[in-house]
Amino acid sequence: MTSAIVKWLGGNDTGSSSKTIALTALGEMPQGASHKYPSDGADFGRCYRLIQAAPEAKAGLDRLATDGGPYWAALAARWDEIEAAYLRDIAKPKGDETYALMKSILRPIEARDSRIVRLGEGVSIRFGK
Asked: What is the pLDDT of residues 43-70, one digit of tens each?
């Protein structure tokens, strides 16, 4: 059951958010998992491809939705919507619907997060763990 996840982890299509889903599905939620969520279409794409390659990895996303903090909870609640936007984006050149949707989901949480200082559009710094 987990061999597909382990195989995927050994590949080259990984990033911190997709690794977080994979490891959580394997029963090992990584330290700092709450800050290792997908923040743009490229990050989401790696998560999407993980779940396509290893459907059992969806269990990691489900656990992160409840135990991974507000960012994961918000993204997981709208995962199907983000996935649909992602699929539309990859079907057309220079699609940015995924990014815009993800930012609309994440920005309100970032605004309440005292560890984040926004320096301008698309530029922020996160302090602490």
From this structure: 999 999 999 999 999 999 999 999 999 9
Domains: count for the chain: 1
Domain span at residue 8? 3-126
Residues 12-46: b if buried by 16+ CB within 10 A, e if exposed: eebbbbbbbbbbbbbeebeeebbbbbbbebebbbb
Residue 53 structure tokens: 């390659």
Percent of the chain, pLDDT > 90? 73
Tokens at 18, concatenated: 């997709």
CA distance 22 to 30: 10
Residue whose structure tokens are 């656990």: 63
Query: What's the half-sphere exposure (Cβ side, CA atoms, 13 Å) at 46?
Result: 21
Taking alpha carbons only, the member of 54, 63, 1, 52 closest to residue 28 is 63
Angle CA 123–33–100, to nearest 5 = 40
Task: Reduce the DSSP state of residue 42 to 3 states and report it.
Answer: helix
